[in-house]
Specification:
The chain is α+β, with helices and mostly antiparallel strands and 179 residues long. It has four helices and 13 strands. The strands form three sheets. The protein has a six-stranded mixed sheet, with no helix packed on it. It starts with 7 loop residues before the first strand and ends with a strand.
């Protein structure tokens, strides 16, 4: 199975995946389940409209396609044999990915970082880092998403590499200042 790249384009203040219905057909997944995942990962509102997915906000094609690949890894591909011939069953409130090819099964939930990784702070206030801007916020600031962190860089544009100082960290939101 070859997963097609999303035909992603920006129209005004929205991002559209033109071939959303085609992708869900190839993945053999419920469009609502796939849409819920995309909305959660993009952190915005979205809807399915005539076989297209429409999201509030501007997101780069490469970023949207990386989220699609993550979905395929987590919710489609068998972790034992690598086959895409899988389906999702519900066992009580737990979703189980069952492989039709090899018979294996595993729970499907977002895998969290290990406790050691969670305790090690990747970013600290005052530190300097170089980042590549992935998308724009609704206010026009550059945005980088790195794991659980959302990093805002004022005046930066997608594709730009900028060196910044971490000014403030509020939970998983990081505010920076250009150096």
């Amino acid at each position: 199975m070859t997963i097609p790249d999303g035909n992603v384009f920006i129209e005004g203040k929205t991002t559209i995946i033109e071939n959303f219905a085609e992708i869900t057909d190839i993945l053999n997944r419920d469009p609502d389940h796939f849409m819920k995942y995309l909305v959660g990962e993009l952190g915005t509102a979205g809807k399915i409209d005539s076989g297209r997915a429409v999201f509030s906000g501007k997101f780069e094609k490469s970023y949207v396609n990386s989220i699609i690949k993550n979905y395929v890894h987590e919710y489609v591909t068998c972790s034992e044999c690598g086959s895409p011939d899988t389906h999702i069953d519900k066992d009580d409130r737990i979703s189980i990915l069952r492989c039709d090819a090899c018979g294996s099964h595993r729970p499907v939930k977002k895998r969290k970082a290990s406790r050691i990784e969670q305790k090690t702070a990747k970013y600290t206030e005052g530190s300097e880092v170089e980042l590549e801007i992935q998308s724009l916020s609704k206010r026009g600031d550059g945005v980088v998403r790195d794991g659980n962190y959302t990093i805002y860089i004022a005046g930066a544009k997608p594709g730009q590499k900028v060196k910044v100082r971490i000014a403030r960290i509020a939970g998983s939101i990081i505010f920076t200042e250009k150096i």
